């Protein structure tokens, strides 16, 4: 395997922790305008934002995360109308947007003429991943900034996604301009990604359950035929703690810490009530805590229904062999 191309990270940047009051939002929007990176909460996970029209700003995202530059970024806008300035929609996309935006759904659609985005955002692809987040702090920031914000999850590439400002700072302090501290993310797993190539296709399970999308479409989603587009969410190892991860465990082996679910208890439990929404909201915080404790991790079986599909997807990648 070829060594990953790395961009030199900017280190020793003083990273501000900003509040969610008007002053904090105004400062965050001002920093985005200046081409700096600002992490902010969404309902799914914290994003690491930059002005999607400024190439130098977008490059700072890749540098801070040490993200391979061939991985395209999701663009966040405040309203569907702003989205339709950037991408060309179709009937199915309009239908899904009407039902799930604002919310944890990303649509991959052809770029519109005159979109004005940096080519770094799409990694040169003719399509763009776009979403309208539902979190009040994300909405406030996008409205104040009044432009498209490119934002991948605010974690070092390949590591566990952040669902709190503390997670963001643990991974990226000194490498980003600021984080807006909006507390814990309520959904806890990343957005569901749907492409149209040409039929609606599930590119990544996430915060909107596959069945909910299929109910709106009136037919099943296609699954990707191949992995021609190399995306982090499609890479085998991702969302990875330092220690090995073993799935579908009913009890810990010697030396393992156990992440429980329902009746199968452990050092931590994703949801003692076996509630998959609660488990999704707790997933990355539990992995961060077990990662900090160190050593191998065993995880109880999680059903594949509803948000369980996204949880199982992230856990499978956390458990995958490391490059
Ligand atoms: O919930 C989320 O989606 C979070 C929050 C911050 O919005 N963002 C997020 O971004 O998860 P990221 O970069 O960690 O994952 C985005 C995924 C990647 O797998 C990327 O390759 C894929 O979306 N993606 C982006 N644009 C794409 C495109 N044009 N075609 C196919 N995949 C695309
Ligand atoms: Mg990510």
Description:
This protein has helices spanning 22-33, 55-65, 80-86, 91-100, 119-122, 136-145, 165-172, 210-217, 276-293, 308-319, and strands at 16-18, 38-41, 46-51, 74-76, 105-110, 127-131, 149-150, 178-180, 192-196, 200-204, 245-246, 257-260, 268-269, 297-299. It is α/β, with parallel strands linked by helices. It has a ten-stranded mixed β-sheet with strand order 1-8-2-3-7-4-6-5-9-10, sandwiched between helices. Magnesium ion binds at residues 152-153, 161, 232.
Brief rundown of the structure:
This protein has 323 residues and is an alpha/beta fold. The chain has helices at residues 22-33, 55-65, 80-86, 91-100, 119-122, 136-145, 165-172, 210-217, 276-293, 308-319, and strands at residues 16-18, 38-41, 46-51, 74-76, 105-110, 127-131, 149-150, 178-180, 192-196, 200-204, 245-246, 257-260, 268-269, 297-299.
């Amino acid at each position: 395997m070829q060594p990953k191309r790395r961009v030199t990270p900017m280190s020793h940047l003083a990273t501000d922790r900003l509040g969610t009051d008007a002053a904090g939002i105004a400062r965050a929007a001002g920093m985005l305008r200046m081409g700096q990176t600002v992490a902010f909460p969404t309902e799914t996970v914290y994003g690491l934002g930059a002005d999607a029209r400024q190439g130098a700003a977008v490059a700072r995202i890749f540098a801070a995360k040490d993200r391979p530059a061939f991985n395209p970024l999701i663009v966040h806008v405040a309203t569907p109308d702003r989205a339709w300035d950037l991408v060309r929609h179709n009937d199915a996309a309009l239908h899904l947007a009407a039902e799930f935006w604002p919310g944890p759904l990303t649509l991959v659609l052809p770029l519109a003429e005159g979109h004005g985005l940096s080519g770094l955002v799409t990694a040169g692809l003719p399509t763009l991943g776009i979403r309208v987040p539902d979190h009040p702090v994300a909405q406030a920031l996008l409205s104040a900034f009044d432009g498209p914000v490119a934002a991948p999850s605010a974690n070092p590439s390949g590591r566990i996604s952040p669902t709190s400002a503390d997670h963001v700072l643990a991974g990226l302090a000194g490498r980003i301009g600021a984080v807006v501290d909006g507390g814990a993310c309520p959904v806890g797993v990343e957005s569901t990604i749907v492409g149209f190539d040409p039929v609606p296709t599930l590119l990544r399970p996430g915060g909107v359950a596959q069945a909910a999308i299929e109910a709106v479409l009136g037919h099943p989603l296609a699954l990707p035929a191949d992995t021609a587009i190399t995306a982090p969410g499609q890479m085998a190892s991702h969302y990875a703690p330092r220690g090995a991860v073993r799935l579908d465990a009913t009890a810990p082996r010697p030396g393992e810490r156990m992440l429980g679910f329902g009746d199968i208890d452990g050092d931590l439990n994703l949801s003692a009530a076996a509630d998959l929404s609660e488990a999704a909201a707790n997933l990355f915080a539990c992995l961060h805590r077990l990662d900090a404790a160190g050593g191998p991790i065993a995880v109880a079986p999680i059903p594949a229904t509803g948000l369980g599909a996204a949880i199982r997807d992230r856990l499978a990648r956390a458990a995958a062999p490391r490059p």
